[in-house]
Task: inverse folding
């Protein structure tokens, strides 16, 4: 948690960090990823058979090694919007017998050469857990139950035996399952009203947990600030003794929200992710309100928030139906850093966050036939995933603020927009870490720091311009390492992310 005091422009900024004030555990799942059958994410991204850079499974080895650097705990699949017409049985069994289908989310053809078994094997090689999104469009409850049985079943039953027939004796034990994706959106096949969705989601959840009570089920929310979020939470967060269910475990474990931000204006771009912070705060309150109104007892586990799609994305600059291949700038990298600061500050409420997406599609990692490119947004992800773990700790920032327009506009009245955006953590290794984004594009900021001591490791991400990019055949944005003796003030460069790390 970071608190803030607004000061005048001519006052010296102060950042105070209390490494002994542990606020809440940071769930490692906030560093999760997302792969969808969209553009070149799967085909030509993680799966590229015949390429000399691929292994015997057709998996790109350079992609796997790169993603291992990020230590990704969970990867969501197969969508996204794609899942609303996806039938998982098309993607199992002999590849020569798998049908090609029209794909309606991104208006292409799905060959089904990459499916459940391939994805789960890829997850095992990567060392990550799978997270499946169920088809709430053209899919059926029977189909969903069959998918769970195929992945997790241990008995002598049809779909568990089908898994064995196709070469996998032991169950995959897929834990995370989403009850649809963005079913509120007009772009969805089988778009639903909130009333229709809430009824269907609860009934599906009941059946799924009868089959496998260990599942973690994720409710489909909107952006955390909508009546859809309130209604679905109120309808589905019910006590165990509810007349609608006799389940011995809660049916809903997490509530999903999505947010993409972008602006061609740097200051709008880097303050936009603060909308995610307010969305998390509102969603957390809606969870509390639903539990209060439904008289859910305090002994029943409170759901967490699953922010399972987030990123900087301009859908005009990177059109979804054309593969959504963004060329990210330093400004975008700093916006990603602010997103990540938000997730650290709000760790109490977050059970998972998935950057959309992991390869090629609005991604920090791009492939070509000959190799990979780590975009500007790769570097803040790497720093945070490597160091910002353990516990969120108390921090206070005193500085002046950006007073201009924001995108979305409501951020201006809903959140403070300080020139220094800060989060802090302490790891189980005893090292404290502070991530500071100087969002200014015109001035360095000389600030007093209270808390760091001894020799401080410094990691800086910056460049000569906010428009710097790594997609020009050269790497303009990366991490520069240095040290600081923790005496005097520290000069935070304009348009930069600085991570300070010291032994407590």
Result:
């Amino acid at each position: 948690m970071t608190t803030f005091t607004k000061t005048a422009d001519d006052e010296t900024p102060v950042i105070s960090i209390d490494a002994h004030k542990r606020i809440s555990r940071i769930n490692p799942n906030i560093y999760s990823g997302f792969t969808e059958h969209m553009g070149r994410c799967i085909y030509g991204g993680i799966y590229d058979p015949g390429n000399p850079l691929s292994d015997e499974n057709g998996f790109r080895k350079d992609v796997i090694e790169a993603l291992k650097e990020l230590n990704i705990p969970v990867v969501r699949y197969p969508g996204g919007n794609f899942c609303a017409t996806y039938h998982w049985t098309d993607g199992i069994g002999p590849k020569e017998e798998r049908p090609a289908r029209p794909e309606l989310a991104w208006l292409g053809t799905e060959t089904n050469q990459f499916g459940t078994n391939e994805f789960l094997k890829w997850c095992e090689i990567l060392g990550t857990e799978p997270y499946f999104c169920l088809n709430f469009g053209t899919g059926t409850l029977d189909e969903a139950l069959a998918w769970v049985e195929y992945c997790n079943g241990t008995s002598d039953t049809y779909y568990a035996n089908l898994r064995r027939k196709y070469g996998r004796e032991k169950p995959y034990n897929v834990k995370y399952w989403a009850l649809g994706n963005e079913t509120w959106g007009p772009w969805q096949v089988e778009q639903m009203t909130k009333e229709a969705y809430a009824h269907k989601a609860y009934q599906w959840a009941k059946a799924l947990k009868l089959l496998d009570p260990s599942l973690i089920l994720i409710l489909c929310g909107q952006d955390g600030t909508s009546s859809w979020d309130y209604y679905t939470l109120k309808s589905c967060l019910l006590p165990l003794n509810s007349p609608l269910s006799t389940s011995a475990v809660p049916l809903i474990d997490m509530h999903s929200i999505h947010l993409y931000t972008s602006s061609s204006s740097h200051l709008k771009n880097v303050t936009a992710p603060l909308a995610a912070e307010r969305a998390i705060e509102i969603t957390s309150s809606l969870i509390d309100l639903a539990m209060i109104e439904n008289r859910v007892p305090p002994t029943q586990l409170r759901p967490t928030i699953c922010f399972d799609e987030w990123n900087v994305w301009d859908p005009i600059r990177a059109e979804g139906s054309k593969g959504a291949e963004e060329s990210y700038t330093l400004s975008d990298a700093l916006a990603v850093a602010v997103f990540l600061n938000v997730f650290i500050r709000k760790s109490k409420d977050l059970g998972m966050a998935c950057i959309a997406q992991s390869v090629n599609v609005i991604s920090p990692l791009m492939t070509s036939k000959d190799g990979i490119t780590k975009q500007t947004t790769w570097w803040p992800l790497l720093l945070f995933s490597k160091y910002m773990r353990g516990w969120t700790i108390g921090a206070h920032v005193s500085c002046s603020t950006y007073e201009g327009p924001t995108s979305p506009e409501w951020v201006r009245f809903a959140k403070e927009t300080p020139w220094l955006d800060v989060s802090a953590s302490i790891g189980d290794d005893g090292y404290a870490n502070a991530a500071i984004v100087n969002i200014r594009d015109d001035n360095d900021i000389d600030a007093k720091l209270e808390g760091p001591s001894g020799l401080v490791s410094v990691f800086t991400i910056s460049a000569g311009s906010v428009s710097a990019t790594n997609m020009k055949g050269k790497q303009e944005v990366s991490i520069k390492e240095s040290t600081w003796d923790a005496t005097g003030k520290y000069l935070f460069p304009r348009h930069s992310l600085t991570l300070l790390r010291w032994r407590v």
Observations:
- The chain has a mean pLDDT of 97.
- Residues 2-503 form a domain with the TIM Barrel fold (CATH 3.20.20.80).
